[in-house]
């Protein structure tokens, strides 16, 4: 497809794109130049329905006036304030607003700039928390197979995606992994599977193997997003909570995707009614517009650090951009937009329609599983023999040509539209995907 050279640079070589097939992309670039509401505009002037909320982050859709104005106003008023030993009001205001919608028992907010940084922060907090309480032997971290916790060293260590780990050397020690929660017998389950809570019992085995006194924290996505929407079976998260509590181990929910309404509640912790000790967030916190993340903690975690002389720094950790004024203003406007438009409730209301639309794809060629929860869904395809990922990637390219944006991970198609989606958009998204699946080799 010809690109409009007025808006797209013709030398694409310098930018080394993240998590992208660079050589394929640069031969046939897919460029967005504008966005509004549910739609992107491509460089060649086509409208593409956003079936993925950008990268699971634009929960209020695109170019939302309140957010645009807040950023413009803040940039003109206070562009930056030092993050260490100085403050500015909006960072405090946003923290209070996050706590207002967080599960009861979560009381503090530590700012980061991304999901990956939230994960590193939470892992460090877990280890330092135990040390502050005189349990310095608790340094081991437990993650889960097929878990995604960003791309920094801590995150890939506890993460369970082989390709994200295997190229990156020897710093991934001191961790262990739970089995993932995807059981073949649960294929085509609508929502949370009934069967599989027993998978949490493996944590007892891991604890017995290493000794509880060596383990700082367990980190899981309450619902695994990036590896293809893997639901927690009923009772599973409750078990993880009970076992971690019994052994004095912190439980961290990585809510980078599930936070801010994706499942129909502010956080998955509320949706599943399980309270972790810490939650990692990013993405929807600022509607994806300005980079920002946050780790949310209980008072117990926070208070363990609040000791020693008052003039001393309690935690030797933080980022130049922690609580950046423009990000904070963007976060406040985002949370106001969610609230004013009732978007979390809207996600819950639309979830049954979304579920039925997704599961209508059952029986189409290559479809071996469909999974859903809230406004998130996955369609798993049978891989082409000897060419894993190719079939789903072809579906992605075809859908893009036909005007809808989906995401693929392996041979799984994942969708997570903005929470402002209308039923007719759901019909367009699923209808287009269905047509593409029928035509795929
Ligand atoms: N944790 C989870 C559960 C995620 O889904 C992601 C990104 O998709 C991350 C962490 C990393 O976030 P970021 O890309 O902002 O570093």
UniProtKB/TrEMBL annotation:
Cofactor: pyridoxal 5'-phosphate
Keyword Transferase: yes
Gene3D superfamilies from the UniProt entry: Aspartate Aminotransferase, domain 1 (3.90.1150.10), Type I PLP-dependent aspartate aminotransferase-like (Major domain) (3.40.640.10)
GO MF, one annotated term: transaminase activity
InterPro entries: Aminotrans_3, Aminotrans_3_PPA_site, PyrdxlP-dep_Trfase, PyrdxlP-dep_Trfase_major, PyrdxlP-dep_Trfase_small
Annotated keywords: Aminotransferase, Pyridoxal phosphate, Transferase
PANTHER family: ADENOSYLMETHIONINE-8-AMINO-7-OXONONANOATE AMINOTRANSFERASE, BETA-ALANINE--PYRUVATE AMINOTRANSFERASE
Family: Belongs to the class-III pyridoxal-phosphate-dependent aminotransferase family.
Listed name of the protein: Aspartate aminotransferase family protein
Species: Halodurantibacterium flavum
Taxonomic lineage of the native organism: Bacteria, Pseudomonadati, Pseudomonadota, Alphaproteobacteria, Rhodobacterales
